[in-house]
Amino acid sequence: ASVPYSHTERETFLAEHCRPGVVLKSASCDIFQNLAFEDWIHAHVDVEKRSILFMCRNRPAVVIGRHQNPWQECNVPLARERGIPVARRRSGGGTVFHDLGNVNLTFFSSRKRYDRQRNLRIVTRALRQLSPNLDVHATERFDILLNKQFKISGTAAKLGRTGAYHHCTLLCSADRALLSATLRSACAAGIRSNATPSVAAPVRNLRDEDPTLNCDAVMEAVASQYYADFGLSAPAVVVDPTDELSHPGIRRITQELQAWDWVFGKTPAFSLDTSFEVQCEACDTKVNLTVGVKSGAIETCSIESPQDWLPPAMCRELSGLMVGSRFRPSDMAVIFTAFLRANPQSHELENKMHILCEKVVALM
Amino acid sequence: MATRVAFRCMLASFPSALTPRRLPLRVCAHSRALGTSSRAAAALKFTDKHEWVRVEDGVGTVGISNFAQEALGDVVYCSLPEVGTKLNQMDEFGALESVKAASELYSPLTGEVTEVNQDLAENPGLVNKSCYKDGSQGAGA
């Protein structure tokens, strides 16, 4: 069982017992708060003497790796529409979908003790404690597979100066329909970049295999197994990632992680080459869009439209205006509005501009 | 004269003190073959974080050591600063991602970046194959 402690109680508890390993469980289900907590531990806690296991669950969110391209990895407009935040981790690795049916585990240790396979053995052992006939094993890629087929866990890691952390997901009862829809990019085919790609895999929920494997049971089992590894037995300590007093500076970290400049602006330079269909005199025709994006800002842009849909001069001028602005719906809206205000057009052309704007924004 | 001052500062108080004048910082690597020659080896200074620095005519060249690249595993992503970026010693100046983990690169010198090895963005594997030459990270002044 997890026992809530006040900050002072917890510190005393930890100091007195000098545990070589501690399990912390988050009171928050907010992806940014929990990522900030990881950051804070990584930056402030001396892991030479004590290792830490941090556990949490998050409300629906897409989490991309440090060097990934969100537009390549998920459907950003759909996520926005559904109120699902996109977050960028500080660690490497691929894209995962979090929701309350997914357990997140972060193993903090010194660089010397950094051992991902060992951590994953703790997880698989814990699962087999709950469900003895469960066929789960960790691969060379540090995935955990169920029945040698289905991915139930993915891994990412960060090496710091003195400490390191390894975190992984665990699919217990996630919404797989939402997962698939959100992780399907609208424009990946047209993207050229050297961002790290994800490796897609068929997934399964543990609960589908064994109904007793719910998140709470799994977290408790992993915590026990972790402590057992140190020859200990203890409850997990509940932590509050919004507690600035106990974790000075954590609010600023949370805000940094939420900033557009981090989530989207840190995307490695990429080009997007795509086209969309527009109606032209009762037949369909294509408009081509090519953009070069660096640090989230449009560096180059070209819009090609059939002459009878939009005049080339207009396309050129619009492209020119887009350069320098962010690859972001709100920025596009401002540009298109300003353009139309400065260059009033016929009703027909204005409509086409609106359609163009909609199509462009639907990519972002 | 100025170069000797810079060297002396580096030798005396590396990696903690800041050099009194801005030192050209060029991040680039030497070939592993060269690394085995004693002359090249003598010219490299290593930080405790396994970055190496070579200073020549007031220009410092930075890369990561063979030990570091082996410890990292296959590098799959490398990001480096823009030319013109001003860095202080210990500033984060880039990032690497390998099969092992993501990790930051910290500047061993204070200076201004004058040259960056662009090949690494396209071909991050060079960090492993040729950490002392083609896989070096750049130059600074």
From TrEMBL, chain A:
Q: Where in the cell is it found?
A: Mitochondrion
Q: Which GO terms describe its cellular component?
A: mitochondrion
Pfam families in the record, alphabetically? LplA-B_cat
Catalytic activities: N(6)-[(R)-lipoyl]-L-lysyl-[glycine-cleavage complex H protein] + L-lysyl-[lipoyl-carrier protein] = L-lysyl-[glycine-cleavage complex H protein] + N(6)-[(R)-lipoyl]-L-lysyl-[lipoyl-carrier protein]; (R)-lipoyl-5'-AMP + L-lysyl-[lipoyl-carrier protein] = N(6)-[(R)-lipoyl]-L-lysyl-[lipoyl-carrier protein] + AMP + 2 H(+)
Q: What is its main location?
A: mitochondrion
Supply the Gene3D superfamilies for this chain: Bira Bifunctional Protein, Domain 2, CO dehydrogenase flavoprotein, C-terminal domain
Q: Which UniProt keywords apply?
A: Acyltransferase, Mitochondrion, Transferase, Transit peptide
- Primary enzyme class: transferase
The EC number(s) attached to this protein equal: 2.3.1.200
MF terms per GO, please? lipoyltransferase activity
Please give the CDD domains that the UniProt record associates with this protein.
LplA
A single Gene Ontology biological process assigned to it is: protein lipoylation
Q: Which family does it belong to?
A: Belongs to the LplA family.
Q: Describe the task this protein carries out.
A: Lipoyl amidotransferase that catalyzes the transfer of lipoyl moieties from lipoyl-protein H of the glycine cleavage system (lipoyl-GCSH) to E2 subunits of the pyruvate dehydrogenase complex (PDCE2). Unable to catalyze the transfer of octanoyl from octanoyl-GCSH to PDCE2. In vitro, it is also able to catalyze the transfer of the lipoyl group from lipoyl-AMP to the specific lysine residue of lipoyl domains of lipoate-dependent enzymes but this reaction may not be physiologically relevant.
Q: What is this protein called?
A: Lipoyl amidotransferase LIPT1, mitochondrial
Q: Which organism is it from?
A: Scleropages formosus (Asian bonytongue)
Q: Name the gene that codes for it.
A: LIPT1
